[in-house]
Amino acid sequence: MTVTESTTKVIGTSRLRKEDAELITGRAGFVDNISLPGMLWVGLVRSPFAHAKINGIDVSNARGLPSRTSIIPKR
Amino acid sequence: MRSIAITVNGVRRELDVEPRQLLVYALREQLGLTGTNIGCDTTSCGACTVHLDGESVKSCTVLAVQADGHEVTTIEGLSANGALHPMQQAFHENHALQCGYCTPGMIMAAASFLNENPSPSADEIRHGLEGNLCRCTGYHNIVKAVQAVAGA
User: Whole-model pTM?
Assistant: First the structure.
Protein backbone atom coordinates (compact mmCIF):
# COMPACT_ATOMS: atom_id res chain seq x y z
CA MET A 1 0.00 0.00 0.00
CA THR A 2 1.24 3.44 -0.90
CA VAL A 3 0.87 6.29 1.57
CA THR A 4 -0.62 9.23 -0.27
CA GLU A 5 -0.91 12.91 0.64
CA SER A 6 -4.57 12.59 1.56
CA THR A 7 -3.92 10.11 4.38
CA THR A 8 -1.66 12.54 6.21
CA LYS A 9 -3.96 15.56 6.33
CA VAL A 10 -5.07 14.91 9.92
CA ILE A 11 -2.19 13.05 11.53
CA GLY A 12 0.61 15.42 12.43
CA THR A 13 -1.45 18.55 12.06
CA SER A 14 -3.03 20.77 14.72
CA ARG A 15 -6.83 20.49 14.79
CA LEU A 16 -9.21 23.18 15.99
CA ARG A 17 -11.50 21.91 18.74
CA LYS A 18 -15.20 21.51 18.01
CA GLU A 19 -16.31 22.01 21.62
CA ASP A 20 -14.88 25.51 22.06
CA ALA A 21 -17.81 27.58 20.76
CA GLU A 22 -20.03 27.25 23.83
CA LEU A 23 -17.10 27.36 26.27
CA ILE A 24 -15.76 30.70 25.02
CA THR A 25 -19.16 32.40 24.82
CA GLY A 26 -20.54 31.45 28.25
CA ARG A 27 -23.10 28.94 26.98
CA ALA A 28 -21.47 25.85 28.47
CA GLY A 29 -23.72 23.42 30.33
CA PHE A 30 -21.80 23.02 33.57
CA VAL A 31 -23.90 21.24 36.20
CA ASP A 32 -24.21 24.34 38.39
CA ASN A 33 -25.74 26.19 35.43
CA ILE A 34 -28.68 23.82 35.13
CA SER A 35 -32.01 25.04 36.47
CA LEU A 36 -35.14 22.91 36.02
CA PRO A 37 -38.75 23.48 37.16
CA GLY A 38 -39.28 21.97 40.61
CA MET A 39 -35.60 21.29 41.04
CA LEU A 40 -34.48 20.41 44.56
CA TRP A 41 -31.16 21.15 46.23
CA VAL A 42 -29.39 18.83 48.59
CA GLY A 43 -27.24 19.89 51.51
CA LEU A 44 -24.89 17.34 53.08
CA VAL A 45 -24.10 17.57 56.78
CA ARG A 46 -21.10 15.43 57.62
CA SER A 47 -19.54 14.51 60.93
CA PRO A 48 -17.21 17.21 62.24
CA PHE A 49 -14.98 14.42 63.55
CA ALA A 50 -12.57 12.60 61.26
CA HIS A 51 -12.56 9.32 63.20
CA ALA A 52 -15.54 8.73 65.46
CA LYS A 53 -18.52 6.47 65.98
CA ILE A 54 -21.92 8.03 65.25
CA ASN A 55 -24.28 7.05 68.05
CA GLY A 56 -27.21 9.10 66.89
CA ILE A 57 -28.29 11.96 64.57
CA ASP A 58 -30.55 14.69 65.93
CA VAL A 59 -32.53 16.21 63.04
CA SER A 60 -34.98 18.19 65.16
CA ASN A 61 -33.48 21.58 64.24
CA ALA A 62 -33.51 20.69 60.54
CA ARG A 63 -37.20 19.73 60.73
CA GLY A 64 -38.00 23.31 61.66
CA LEU A 65 -36.49 24.79 58.47
CA PRO A 66 -39.29 26.37 56.38
CA SER A 67 -38.19 25.36 52.87
CA ARG A 68 -37.04 21.85 53.74
CA THR A 69 -38.47 19.02 51.61
CA SER A 70 -36.99 15.98 53.31
CA ILE A 71 -34.30 14.86 55.72
CA ILE A 72 -32.47 11.61 55.11
CA PRO A 73 -30.38 10.61 58.14
CA LYS A 74 -27.86 7.92 57.32
CA ARG A 75 -25.02 6.42 59.26
CA MET B 1 -33.93 44.23 50.32
CA ARG B 2 -32.49 47.01 48.20
CA SER B 3 -33.70 48.03 44.76
CA ILE B 4 -30.82 48.52 42.33
CA ALA B 5 -30.38 49.08 38.59
CA ILE B 6 -27.40 47.69 36.71
CA THR B 7 -26.76 48.01 32.98
CA VAL B 8 -25.79 44.45 32.12
CA ASN B 9 -24.46 43.82 28.62
CA GLY B 10 -26.03 47.07 27.48
CA VAL B 11 -29.46 46.41 28.96
CA ARG B 12 -30.73 48.17 32.07
CA ARG B 13 -31.82 45.57 34.63
CA GLU B 14 -33.69 46.42 37.81
CA LEU B 15 -33.56 43.97 40.68
CA ASP B 16 -34.12 43.64 44.40
CA VAL B 17 -31.15 42.28 46.29
CA GLU B 18 -30.17 41.66 49.86
CA PRO B 19 -27.41 44.07 50.90
CA ARG B 20 -25.06 41.09 51.35
CA GLN B 21 -25.80 39.67 47.86
CA LEU B 22 -22.69 39.21 45.74
CA LEU B 23 -22.69 40.48 42.16
CA VAL B 24 -21.96 37.01 40.77
CA TYR B 25 -25.11 35.58 42.36
CA ALA B 26 -27.18 38.47 41.04
CA LEU B 27 -25.83 37.73 37.55
CA ARG B 28 -26.17 33.96 37.70
CA GLU B 29 -29.27 33.37 39.79
CA GLN B 30 -31.35 36.50 39.35
CA LEU B 31 -30.48 37.41 35.77
CA GLY B 32 -29.78 33.86 34.54
CA LEU B 33 -26.38 34.76 33.11
CA THR B 34 -24.61 31.51 33.96
CA GLY B 35 -21.67 32.13 31.63
CA THR B 36 -19.85 33.68 34.58
CA ASN B 37 -18.61 30.71 36.59
CA ILE B 38 -17.98 30.48 40.31
CA GLY B 39 -14.76 28.68 41.06
CA CYS B 40 -13.74 29.42 44.62
CA ASP B 41 -16.07 32.10 46.03
CA THR B 42 -13.02 33.56 47.78
CA THR B 43 -11.36 35.85 45.21
CA SER B 44 -8.59 33.37 44.50
CA CYS B 45 -9.37 31.88 41.11
CA GLY B 46 -10.80 34.59 38.87
CA ALA B 47 -13.39 32.33 37.20
CA CYS B 48 -16.08 34.93 37.97
CA THR B 49 -14.24 37.87 36.35
CA VAL B 50 -16.52 40.41 34.66
CA HIS B 51 -16.09 44.01 33.57
CA LEU B 52 -17.41 46.77 35.84
CA ASP B 53 -17.41 50.03 33.89
CA GLY B 54 -14.94 48.41 31.50
CA GLU B 55 -12.47 47.22 34.11
CA SER B 56 -12.09 43.61 35.23
CA VAL B 57 -13.35 42.69 38.69
CA LYS B 58 -13.95 39.39 40.42
CA SER B 59 -17.71 39.38 40.76
CA CYS B 60 -17.58 37.19 43.90
CA THR B 61 -15.85 40.09 45.62
CA VAL B 62 -18.22 42.83 44.53
CA LEU B 63 -21.54 43.35 46.23
CA ALA B 64 -24.48 43.69 43.88
CA VAL B 65 -25.34 47.02 45.53
CA GLN B 66 -21.87 48.31 44.61
CA ALA B 67 -22.77 47.81 40.95
CA ASP B 68 -25.90 49.93 41.33
CA GLY B 69 -25.90 52.56 38.59
CA HIS B 70 -22.88 51.04 36.85
CA GLU B 71 -22.25 49.01 33.71
CA VAL B 72 -21.41 45.32 33.85
CA THR B 73 -20.23 43.23 30.91
CA THR B 74 -20.20 39.45 31.17
CA ILE B 75 -18.81 36.84 28.78
CA GLU B 76 -22.26 36.69 27.16
CA GLY B 77 -22.02 40.36 26.26
CA LEU B 78 -18.38 40.56 25.20
CA SER B 79 -19.01 39.89 21.55
CA ALA B 80 -21.38 41.91 19.42
CA ASN B 81 -23.71 40.88 16.60
CA GLY B 82 -22.91 37.18 16.86
CA ALA B 83 -19.25 37.65 15.94
CA LEU B 84 -16.64 36.43 18.38
CA HIS B 85 -14.56 38.98 20.28
CA PRO B 86 -10.92 38.82 19.08
CA MET B 87 -9.92 37.33 22.45
CA GLN B 88 -12.53 34.57 22.14
CA GLN B 89 -11.31 33.81 18.62
CA ALA B 90 -7.69 33.76 19.78
CA PHE B 91 -8.44 31.39 22.68
CA HIS B 92 -10.03 29.00 20.17
CA GLU B 93 -7.25 29.23 17.59
CA ASN B 94 -4.44 28.90 20.14
CA HIS B 95 -5.93 25.99 22.11
CA ALA B 96 -6.00 28.22 25.19
CA LEU B 97 -8.66 26.11 26.89
CA GLN B 98 -9.31 22.52 27.79
CA CYS B 99 -12.23 22.02 30.19
CA GLY B 100 -13.27 25.64 29.70
CA TYR B 101 -14.28 26.39 33.28
CA CYS B 102 -11.76 29.20 33.85
CA THR B 103 -12.21 30.43 30.28
CA PRO B 104 -14.96 33.07 30.65
CA GLY B 105 -13.07 34.75 33.50
CA MET B 106 -9.75 34.32 31.75
CA ILE B 107 -11.06 35.92 28.55
CA MET B 108 -12.64 38.83 30.45
CA ALA B 109 -9.44 39.42 32.42
CA ALA B 110 -7.29 39.18 29.29
CA ALA B 111 -9.49 41.59 27.33
CA SER B 112 -9.38 44.13 30.15
CA PHE B 113 -5.63 43.66 30.56
CA LEU B 114 -4.99 44.52 26.91
CA ASN B 115 -6.99 47.72 27.32
CA GLU B 116 -4.48 48.74 30.00
CA ASN B 117 -1.41 47.39 28.22
CA PRO B 118 -1.98 47.00 24.46
CA SER B 119 1.43 45.52 23.62
CA PRO B 120 2.66 43.52 26.60
CA SER B 121 5.58 41.13 26.86
CA ALA B 122 4.94 37.47 27.71
CA ASP B 123 6.06 38.17 31.27
CA GLU B 124 3.69 41.10 31.56
CA ILE B 125 0.82 38.91 30.32
CA ARG B 126 1.60 36.25 32.93
CA HIS B 127 1.77 38.94 35.62
CA GLY B 128 -1.40 40.59 34.35
CA LEU B 129 -3.35 37.31 34.48
CA GLU B 130 -1.95 36.02 37.76
CA GLY B 131 -5.32 36.49 39.43
CA ASN B 132 -6.85 33.85 37.18
CA LEU B 133 -6.17 30.17 37.75
CA CYS B 134 -6.34 27.44 35.10
CA ARG B 135 -6.05 23.90 36.46
CA CYS B 136 -5.73 22.28 33.04
CA THR B 137 -2.30 23.99 33.10
CA GLY B 138 -3.11 25.86 29.93
CA TYR B 139 -1.17 29.03 30.76
CA HIS B 140 1.32 28.64 27.91
CA ASN B 141 -1.36 28.73 25.24
CA ILE B 142 -3.33 31.40 27.10
CA VAL B 143 -0.27 33.66 26.86
CA LYS B 144 -0.01 32.80 23.17
CA ALA B 145 -3.67 33.75 22.66
CA VAL B 146 -3.20 37.13 24.36
CA GLN B 147 -0.05 37.75 22.31
CA ALA B 148 -1.98 36.92 19.15
CA VAL B 149 -4.59 39.58 19.93
CA ALA B 150 -1.95 42.12 20.97
CA GLY B 151 -0.01 41.57 17.77
CA ALA B 152 -3.06 41.64 15.50
Answer: 0.86
